[in-house]
Amino acid sequence: MLEPGNNDQLPPIPGKRYFTIGEVSDLCAVKPHVLRYWEQEFPQLKPVKRRGNRRYYQRQDVLIIRQIRSLLYEEGFTIGGARQRLTGTEAKSDVSQSQQIIKQVRNELEEVLKILRR
User: Fold this and answer.
1) Pairing state between β 48-50 and 19-20
2) pTM for this prediction
């Protein structure tokens, strides 16, 4: 598991439409039972549930989970404080999510560039 200060070292989010709870757990360095708990605590987190109550997260959900992880593990917020912060910053969330997407795309392009230079 990554140390709290290493949120920038999380793996890039693949270009898939849906992710299983195991995949999200790996992408966000958070155990599945923690993700299920966060679903109860954060109303913004609503994965699609299909047959057998299996959860399927979308890219938006993964970005929210990474933001929650950052607030709790890096910035030291409590669950309630993180919930308030997310609720209060929904207007800003589009900007921060766009920045995260741009950062990820840039990292992926740099990796492609390294491969092409070989």
Assistant:
1) unpaired
2) 0.68
